[in-house]
Write a structure and sequence with these properties.
The structure is a single chain. The N and C termini lie far apart (54 Å). Helix content is 41%, strand content 13%. The chain is globular. It folds into three domains: 80 residues, Butyryl-Coa Dehydrogenase, subunit A, domain 1; 133 residues, Butyryl-CoA Dehydrogenase, subunit A, domain 2 (Beta Barrel), CATH 2.40.110; 124 residues, Butyryl-CoA Dehydrogenase, subunit A, domain 3. α9 packs antiparallel against α12. It is of the alpha+beta class. β6 and β7 form a beta hairpin. It has a four-stranded mixed beta sheet with strand order 1-4-5-8. A four-stranded antiparallel beta sheet has the order 2-3-7-6, with no helix packed on it. The longest helix is centred in the C-terminal third of the chain and has 23 residues.
């Protein structure tokens, strides 16, 4: 294995300089202040500006709204965006668009692709239902055919960023008489269609998610993805991508998807490190010289590095577990100052530690719960059989519960 540094060409170094200059110009204090006020990690102006450069889908062809960047330049771009905590959590097109290309109406696909590349069309996930939890295949949102249209009724929860998106990748029940994985159909739902309602749902971490309601929404068959009652096949690819199952796009990609779940902890750790250099330890030194504090702080850093190096679904669990435990440990190490929120006197880095502790709690849920990922590990990586829980219904071909 080669651990040597990647030496940049002149063109790649110039690209890195261009990216930094772009971010200096567009990621202003006003942009970050707006994120806090809105309770979301998305800024439409910045997103569209990034899309105009072709940097939202940097590997796509320029004609499709991309920039045709090589793997090194893509990694440079991703690294610089992460350093600035760029507000990009508003679009699930990276997961969804391959399914639209494979199963969508050709005319709709060709119409939308350049807009997706430029960021003027964004896609959210319409999976979870209020009483369904992680059982996506148990969807009850109904789609009933009426000539060349479909009438859709139901609701979804955790439709995050629906307020910033033009379409939802929506899973519906089209035949309730079939086994639950067989009677599903996927649609690309326009969020401005009559009968669609988006209701804000604040989280404990000050980030907004949504409940979305669909009341007699009439949708052209043009927006159907794949065959009727074969929606699980359409959904499978985006789910695998979200769950980090499948091939990597580049050897320079992050090894662990858990890195994204440690975003808030990472900022809190950086804030705590700066605080420790000046905070008195009560004995005439600083907290940075306190062996007990530094031992605990070092433990958090080691766990974070382990999470960054853990691949696949295992990394998703390790990232969430590390984020939650690390935020708790930071508060224990720092003391009362750590729980002071934004705006309070004496707060650390504008409340970075306190906010991290709240924000990381959802990392055990978003993108598929850690319980789902443990099942994936058991079945896909360890080859264990599907669990047979007491009371689980097994169905015969005729649809009657087995004895």
């Amino acid at each position: 294995m080669d651990f040597s540094a990647v030496l940049l060409t002149e063109a790649q170094q110039a690209f890195a300089d261009e990216v930094r200059a772009f971010l200096d110009e567009h990621l202003t204090p006003e942009v970050y202040a707006g994120l806090r006020e809105r309770g979301e990690h998305f800024d439409a102006g910045f997103y569209v500006a990034l899309g105009a450069k072709g940097w939202l889908r940097p590997r796509w062809r320029r004609d499709d709204g991309g920039a045709e960047l090589d793997d090194v330049c893509v990694r440079i771009l991703e690294t610089e965006l992460r350093k600035r905590d760029a507000p990009l959590t508003g679009d699930s097109a990276d997961w969804v668009w391959p399914a639209v290309e494979a199963y969508g109406d050709p005319g709709l696909r060709d119409e939308l692709k350049p807009q997706v590349g430029r960021g003027t069309v964004r896609l959210s996930l319409g999976y979870t239902e209020p009483d369904g939890g992680s059982d996506i295949a148990g969807a009850k949102t109904r789609a009933v055919r009426d000539g060349d249209e479909w009438v859709i009724n139901g609701q979804k929860i955790f439709t995050t960023n629906a307020q910033n998106c033009q379409y939802a990748f929506l899973i519906t029940r089209t035949d309730p008489t079939l086994p639950k994985h067989k009677g599903l159909t996927m649609f690309l739902m326009p969020m401005d269609a009559p009968g669609v309602e988006i209701q804000e749902l604040p989280t404990v971490g000050d980030e907004r998610t949504n409940i979305t309601y669909y009341s007699d929404v009439r949708l052209s068959d043009r927006y159907r993805l794949g065959e009727v009652n074969n929606g699980w096949s359409v959904l499978h690819g985006p789910l695998d991508a979200e769950h980090s199952i499948g091939d990597e796009g580049s050897k320079l990609e992050d090894l662990s998807i858990g890195i994204a779940h440690m975003r808030f902890l990472n900022w809190a750790v950086e804030a705590a490190a700066k605080w420790a250099k000046e905070a008195p330890d009560g004995g005439g030194s600083t907290m940075a010289e306190d062996k007990v504090f530094m031992s605990g702080f070092g433990h958090i850093l080691v766990e974070m590095e382990a999470a960054r190096a853990t691949p696949g679904p295992m990394g998703r669990i390790k990232g969430a577990d590390t984020a939650i435990a690390g935020a708790e440990q930071l508060i224990d190490l720092i003391g009362p100052e750590a729980v002071l929120p934004f705006g309070a006197d004496g707060t650390i880095a504008k409340g970075a530690v306190e906010h991290a502790h709240r924000a990381v709690q959802v990392t055990a849920t978003y993108g598929g719960t850690v319980e789902v990922f443990r099942t994936i590990i058991a079945q896909h990586h360890l080859g264990l059989p599907r669990p047979d829980y007491p009371g689980r219904k097994a169905f015969l071909q005729q649809g009657r519960p087995a004895a």
